[in-house]
């Protein structure tokens, strides 16, 4: 997996927890490269899984919750790292629709050895189904990314994970308008 995803995970732990916790996670994960990652390098995705496992032990939070939070945070980091991929987008639906055909395609131009996951989007009226599939078990990160982009564009949409979809290598997310609150 591209180093950017793992290096940013270290940065997220530093910011969301603390630099000391990030150090403790790296030590506990027993990583081959001592937690040093270059953006363009390629590393086993198991390094990221090891870090999430270690952080879960240290923070007593479930791995799935941590992976989702990381994805949410990563959504806004991608905007800082790859601003050109966000030009012209004003809503989350159009942006998410273009991940497979545009954004991840740009990623593979930047990093020819990248193996991005498949993000298939089906639009049905006002609803959107985002399907994630990968040889990597990172469906929770995908969930966080979808939530993160909806938050960024400020759209009034909710994300519901289809509990019938097999995780963690695949997942389906339904993006839709929240049901109106009853006043009674
Ligand atoms: C402009 C927006 C985006 C950029 C720049 C981007 C960039 C990247 C990059 C650089 C990788 C690493 C690929 C590799 O290691 O070979 C990656 C992987 C990934 N992307 Fe994206 N991505 C974007 C949008 C999204 C969205 C919206 C989702 C979720 C629906 C998503 C889900 C993932 C996941 C879960 C991975 C981890 C690898 C895997 O599961 O196989 N990405 N992305």
Automatic annotation (TrEMBL):
Protein name, as recorded: Guanylate cyclase
- The UniProt record lists the Heme NO-binding domain at 2-159
Signal peptide stretch: none
Q: Where are the transmembrane segments?
A: none
Q: Which GO terms describe its molecular function?
A: heme binding
């Amino acid at each position: 997996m591209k180093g950017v995803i793992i290096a940013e995970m270290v940065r997220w732990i530093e910011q969301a927890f603390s630099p000391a916790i990030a150090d403790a996670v790296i030590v506990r994960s027993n990583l081959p490269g001592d937690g040093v990652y270059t953006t363009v390098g390629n590393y086993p995705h198991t390094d990221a899984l090891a870090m999430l496992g270690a952080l879960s032990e240290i923070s007593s939070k479930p791995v799935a919750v941590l992976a989702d939070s990381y994805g949410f945070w990563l959504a806004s980091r991608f905007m800082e790292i790859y601003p050109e991929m966000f030009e012209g987008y004003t809503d989350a639906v159009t942006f998410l629709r273009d991940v497979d055909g545009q954004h991840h395609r740009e990623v593979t131009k930047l990093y020819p050895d990248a193996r991005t996951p498949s993000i298939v989007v089906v639009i049905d009226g006002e609803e959107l189904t985002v399907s994630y599939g990968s040889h990597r078990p990172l469906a929770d990160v995908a969930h966080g990314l979808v939530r993160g982009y909806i938050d960024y564009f400020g759209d009034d949409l909710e994300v519901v994970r289809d509990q019938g979809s097999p995780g963690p290598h695949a997942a389906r997310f339904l993006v839709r308008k929240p049901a109106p609150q009853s006043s009674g």
